[in-house]
Structures are given as C-alpha cells and as structure tokens.
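Re: beginner question about structure tokens

> Can someone show what the tokenized structure looks like for a real chain? I only ever see the sequence side.

Sure, here's an example I had lying around. Input first:
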Amino acid sequence: MTRGAWHVTDYDTAKSYLSGGHKKWDRPLYVRGLRIQSRSKDIAIVDKWYNFEPILFHPDGTLTIQAPQAIPNNWGGTWNPLRSQGVRRNFKDFSGLQGMFQKNGTVYITTQDALRTPSKIQKCRTCHGLGLVDSWCSPSYCQNDFPCNDHPEWQPNVSSSSYRWHYGNCPHGNSDSHSVPKSQDCYHCKGVGLREYGNNLISIAWDGSPIRLKDGNLVKQPPTELEKRIAAYVQLDS
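And the corresponding structure tokens:
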C-alpha cells in the first residue's frame, strides 16, 4: 500500500488522495484490487475483484461499510466475499474498526469503544494448573569424520554409508530422542499455573448489511418508520 493510501480513513483524506491522481475522480489504492472513486455526494472504495463497494465515505465525516451476502463466481455458484480474509482486512484498514474476524462461519466486527467481558482467572487449561509441561530431548551429534578424535566414545550413524556424522547420548543417557515429563515452564501461563480466560473484547455479529461508522464506532441512526411501529406495538401490548 502506498504512503497516501494508508491515510484514507474518512471523506477528507479520501478527497485529498483522489486529488493527487491523474483523473481526479478515480485512483488505484495499490492494495488487493481496490480503487477509490468519487460519487455524486460520496467517495467509494471499490473492490474490483469482487465487484462491490465495501466502504462509502460521507461528507459529514461518517462512513458506511457494506457487503453483499452472495456474488456469482465462475463456476455457476455464489460466494460470500466476507469469507475472504483479504476482504475483511480491507474493511479493517480503511474503516477504522479495531478488528474484523470470522468464527464458526459468522463474521464479527470490533469497534474502537468495544466493552470487555468480566475477568475470569482460572487454572491454565494447557498445564492444568501445574505450571509445567513436557519437553523434548534429542541426543547431540557431531559432523566430524569418523572415527572422531573429539568423541571417541560416540557411535557412528549406521544409516549413512559415509559415516560423516555420529550421535552421542543425551544428558539423560539416552541415544534416541524422547520426551521429558513436566520439565519446562508452561508456554501459555509462563509457569504460573493460572491464566486469564476473560477480559475479552465484545464483538458484534455482522452479515454485511450497511452500517454507519465514525472513528471506528457505530453511529446511532434514528429509528425507521417500521421500527417505530414495532416499538409502539410492543408498548401497547405490555
């Protein structure tokens, strides 16, 4: 990505980037098949590979992210572009979101003001609270010609016709590689035996429907007429 493209995050930076191009209304972003183009009122990032507009920059400083749930592929079927890791990376780079990821077939977005789950410190699930895990030990070997003056007691590698290298015994007296039970600090809890399994960012499931953002956070939209009617019906029913 070019230096200018890194800074395209809102309408003003997108307009400035467009002005530096030859056509003034269309310019490549030099990343993953993306271009930036002016519209009647907005400025759009266009994904030429999947033929849709993932991001619209608005003059009021907000932006809209959107994605079709299915686009045709070359084999007569359809494809959800949000399943592409590159597409999700594009959204994250240019929308200001803290993150976007896929889990169990569902896409989630993480806003900049995302809350966290409560802290939950438990026994480490890797070492079961012991703080230690198994390690692996292998015998030393030497590449000097055999017989070796440095290690006269070592045995030659019988699988090699040249006997170029030869094995010694490991510190435990074994000539073969082997595991050593509970011999090193757990690589997840660093030997403490406890690990934080809470305090995770709370993300929002997203199906590609248009969402308005500003500074990486959701913009509260006024309720639609249908939503107003539903709210009024619920109040009357209660």
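Each token stands for a local structural state, so reading them left to right follows the chain. Residues 74 and 222 are 40 Å apart (CA to CA).
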